[in-house]
Amino acid sequence: MLASGIAYTVRVKRGRNYQALVSFEVDETVQPWNGKRIAAVDVNPKGLAVTIVSPDGNLFASRWFPEPSLVHASAGKRSWLAANLVKRAFRWAKGYGCNAVVVERLKFGMAQENGHDVNRVCSNFLHKKLLELIRLRALKLEWICAEVNAAYSSVAARLKYSRNFSGFNGHQLAALVLGRRALGYGEKLSAAQIKTIPKHRAYAVKTISQSHRHLFLKPRLPADGRIDSEDAKEASALTKRVTPHTAATSGNAKRCLRLSLLGGGGPEDESGVRGHRVNPPIKGQTR
User: Fold this and answer.
1) Which residues contact 61 (CB under 8 A, 6 or more apart)?
2) How confident is the model at residue 37 (pLDDT cuts 50, 70, 90)?
3) If we measure between CA atoms, which residue out of 248, 53, 60, 83 comes closest to residue 153?
4) Res 173 pLDDT > 80
5) Which partner from 125, 190, 230, 268 sits 20 to 30 angstroms from 21, CA to CA?
6) How many Cβ atoms are within 10 Å of 214's Cβ, its own excluded?
7) Count of other CB atoms within 10 angstroms of residue 113
8) pLDDT tens digit string along 187-244?
């Protein structure tokens, strides 16, 4: 970097040892989406929830990365834990052929009216730090980083998916909703589910049901504007609205989910732990 003249700031930091910090600009050109699965991340005070979503909107795999020390550790150690947490999450998602990550657009205030324990968790929530680390990691791996509105994602996950996907926690299902929003799939709720939402929050129903595909996650087009035969099936799948469910039919949902949790299916990370995955449909049975 010094010989090429790219570096514009160089610092030498002295502590127990010496560190040379070199700052330089990087090219933030967005690579085109490969049309394969995407990784949706739900950021939480005590960990990350990563859900792999297929191009047709179905849940393919999901894993919860817990890190309770993010709340109670010192400031320096929390930064170190957050960096390693993001690195583990990307290493796991990379095994599914993803080159796009979806994060939530967070902007909220906190009222000091929830008690000592809750206030401490909220005040130590490294949401900005975690989102920044995710963006930097995606930039380093040349991944697409798409931001979507996170409004009522947990509500939609609880109302629509908590019953069929009881093996996953609410954060993993909220990440599923985020991934589907980035692909342009809204969550259509039944009349009984809409009644559970207070009437003064009618905007919530509209936000949950409507969604637009993110600009970075549109089908690839060659220079001549045509879609070749290899990408035709992937591009056509993006125009369909498919409700995520477990393998086979809805009647066998619990049985298939139980088998998938017992058998595993996702690639192992550095600790040897497999992620939870939904089994593919059985031959001869419709999705």
Assistant:
1) 51, 52, 96, 265, 266, 275, 276, 277, 278
2) very high
3) 53
4) yes
5) 125
6) 19
7) 7
8) 888 888 888 887 777 777 777 877 788 888 886 555 444 444 444 444 444 444 444 4
In 3-state terms, the chain is what percent helix, strand and coil (to 5)? 40, 15, 45
**Which of 57-71, 99-113, 134-148 is predicted least confidently?**
99-113
pTM recorded for the entire structure = 0.69
β 59-66/38-44 pair status = unpaired
Kindly state the helix (H) or strand (E) to which residue 182 belongs, with its residue range.
Answer: helix 170-183
DSSP string of 22-40, one letter each residue? EE-----PPPPP-SS-EEE
User: Strand, coil or helix: what is 200?
Assistant: helix
Bridge pairing between strands 100-105 and 276-277: unpaired
Contact of 130 with 171, CB cutoff 8 Å = no
Structure tokens, 10: 């160089």
**Looking at the predicted structure, is the pLDDT value of residue 269 above 90?**
no
Please state, in angstroms and rounded to a whole number, the distance separating the CA atoms of residues 199 and 201.
5
Give me the sign of the Cα torsion angle 44, 49, 53, 57. Answer: negative
Residues 74-97, mean pLDDT to the nearest whole number: 89
Which residue ranges form the domains of the chain, and what is each CATH number? 28-227+236-277 (3.30.420.40)
Nearest to 23 by CA among 48, 55, 47, 1: 1
178, 153 contact by CB (below 8 A):
yes
DSSP-assigned beta bridge partners for residue 186: none
